[in-house]
Write a structure and sequence with these properties.
The protein is mostly beta strands. Helices cover 4% and strands 62% of the residues. It has a single domain, classed as TonB-dependent receptor, beta-barrel domain (Maltoporin, Chain A).
Amino acid sequence: MEIGSSVTVITEEEIKRKGYRTVKDILKGEPGIDAITTGGPGGQSSILLRGMESYHTLVLIDGLEMGDPSLTQRQFNFANLTVDNIERIEIVRGPQSVLYGADAIGGVINIITKKGRGKPSFYVGIEGGSYDTFREFSGLSGQIERVSFSMAASHTRTTGFSAADEDLPGNSEDDGWENFSFSTRLDFEPTPWLTLGLSLRSQNGDTELDLGGGPYQDCDNYHVEHEEFFAKPYVEILGLDGKWRQRISFGIANHDREYKDSPWGDSNYSGRKYEVSWQHDITIFDSNTLILGAEFEQEEMESTFMEKKSAYTYSLFAQNLLNLKEVSFTTVGIRWDHHKEFGDRMTFRIAQAFPIEKTGTKLKGSLGTGFRAPSLYELYGPPFWGMPVGNSELDPERSVGWDIGLEQSLFDGLLKGGLTYFCNEVDDLIEYVSGRGFINIEEALSRGVEAFVEVGLLKGLSFRLNYTYTHTEDDEGRRLLRRPLNKLGANLNWTFLQERATVNVDLLWVDDRKDYDWAAGRRVRLSDYTLVNMGLGFKVHKNCECSLRVENVFNEDYEEAYGYGTAGFSVYGGVKLSF
């Protein structure tokens, strides 16, 4: 069914073709997305959608919320999330609070774990390259009668480079990273109308740190050990000849961090989130789908400096998708949330799509509201060096967002293009102000344009170009930090030799941005930069594949965040055996 939202789906085949090993690297070239890492491998990594804050992007794995309650604003750190066992990644732009609740102000990134299919198969591989990087990985997937299964594991270690920019004085020490990842999905269908499922993912490792960004930030032994565990069992029931689908699910997301050998002493942070949901998808007259649901969510955090705090939210939502003879698709939804501290909140969303089959045209648009409840740290964070941090008087952030766009397909799909204008406004935005702690400021605004063109040049040869213009400003008319005004991404892919060989080239140009130098207490300018990455895959045998990847081909010197290092020219090669 067509929808009026602006959506990008990245398939397993695209992920494989590009060769990147982390989800952050896969996402950074997509329209409307800004990716920022403070430091080297394993450093804090954020994804911003349409100029909104990173904590306005709701990240899901198989529908389970990934935000860490122990982080300052409940954001998700992409640093340790690898592409292992991922079937597809869905990017849904604009407010999505009706189906997903709080935090989905800028949009949603939903990561779907691979489902086992066909004859059981197994693979194992190894990769190595620059910065003394080594990666071992393996996986198993398939289906045996009524049981589908997939699982994957990987281990990555690297000596890395200085987290603080090594071009600045006093930053000569390399900061390494080690990460263990495991993912599995199990589905059991005892009857045609009943499915029992389980999704699990864990990420454990160690990241070496510096004191921050800027000169003289080296700290030889400072590091953080992280443990993350996510689990979501579910039951799916079909009724009324498949026209009524119920899904009952439970979820837990656990985040633990332990900072060691810091000049300020060791410290621990723990965040947990529990979810229960019951959703009904009801098909009416084959042209109307009604979604009804109820959810309960509880978040908890505690740290060396903060006693255990918690908050809960329970919600009811309804959404209707109406298909009028394949020429009009309308989505209307409403949601009610009750938060422990802030009481009742209502959000709504309307989306419309008009596909015109004869011309290959699609007109689309959406309008929605959203809200974000303050994080536990924003509410209860203890004073730091005698300065206030938490503020129990905070109000939730409120947002309104809309977009309108056009998509066009020509020459039987060989040429596709699209253009979307978007606008998001957030009121009561929560920010930290020195001497006052977290407070609500007036508002923040983000508006701009997303455009793309896809061309099937020849059999096996494709080209994609995308452009994003993003204008942001706070209540004083200043640009929001780390957001480029312009961003351009391009991808060229060539599959040849009877699909045994693949060449992939990515180009990313990011305009200059504003950032903040905390040591000097002033705004600074980050220069624009251009990155070119190349990858080659070759199937030597039906059971053996070789890969070569070159990142930052022209050794561009750049910063994603002021004072933090980034990788230079680097080369990686690997071998994968399948059985």
